[in-house]
Amino acid sequence: MDNFYDIIIVGGGPAGISAAIYAKRAGRNVAVIEKFVPGGQLSLIGEIENYAGFARIEGSDLANKFYEHAKSLDIPFIMDEVVDYYLNGDIKEVKCKRNSYKAYSIIIAVGSHSKELNIEGEKEYKGRGVSYCALCDGNFFKNKDVAVVGSGDSAFSDALYLSNICNKVYVLTKANLKLHNYAENEFDDKENVVILRGALSKKIEGETSLKKLYFEQNNEEKNIDVDGVFVAIGRSPDTGLLKDKIDLNAGGYINTDSLMKTNIEGVFACGDVRSDSMKQIATAVGDGAIAGNEASKYVLRKLYSKNKN
């Protein structure tokens, strides 16, 4: 049948591609649905230093290596956006904007998206100074003053990247103490990086473009003149379409067991979208390997039962 597969993987990031590779090598007919680009959000990450086998590699380069591996196995990538899921029954269906696809098993590897600050002026200046991707938009702020808001590794990595192209980089972090992570330690040699500890962002102002960021520090209202604000405060799972269709935890992540099985037979989840995930490339790849293997075994059982009857 047209648009019918043994397994459909939704999401073409490290987890989804890993799942596809394992399922294809197990002899299954698989396809990957991806709305962005092959490699997913990995394509937007700067330099990566914690993926085994690559001391340093750009996210886009690693994404391309994942994609080329999948293409070498003739795994099709369907560039389309999912609008609905039908997960119950022996045959599952994924409805997209351009077409619908059916399979015995679905692997959900849709990942997550950037969280917003939810402060005054943020929505107004999206695309006019507010960004959620330093790698994507950093060059627009070459030789300008910018701020990075966030307290985790991604925020400090973004600030480190921006420090090489921007005039000055302010880092607004809730943490009052130095965390001594790898990226933050690099700031010791960066004269154009200013860390504002215990800072809570309050408001963004500007004219035709962003001009000022207001924040609270030590119970005092302060502000800085900046041309850009890069938000790096974490991510939320892309599970809006799955509400009331699959078991999610309080944060919206998909609950699975250790074999990536969800509460629905034949439906698996892997990578950043599942609960208890470490949210790292390495763990996403491992999740995908398990999901691809388990989905393959599930399909084999279904086909055996079908032929037996």
What does this structure look like?
This protein has 309 residues and is an alpha/beta fold. The chain folds into two domains: 4-113 and 235-308, 3-Layer(bba) Sandwich (FAD/NAD(P)-binding domain), CATH 3.50.50.60; 116-231, FAD/NAD(P)-binding domain. The chain is built from six helices and 19 strands. Strands 1, 2, 5, 6, 7, 8 and 19 form a seven-stranded mixed sheet that branches. It has a five-stranded parallel sheet with strand order 10-17-11-12-13, covered by helices on one side. Strands 14-15-16 form a three-stranded antiparallel sheet, with no helix packed on it. A hairpin with an 8-residue loop joins strand 3 and strand 4 (57-58). Helix 1 packs parallel to helix 6 (281-308). The chain is elongated, with a radius of gyration of 22 Å. It starts with a strand and ends with a helix.
Short description:
The protein is α/β, with parallel strands linked by helices.
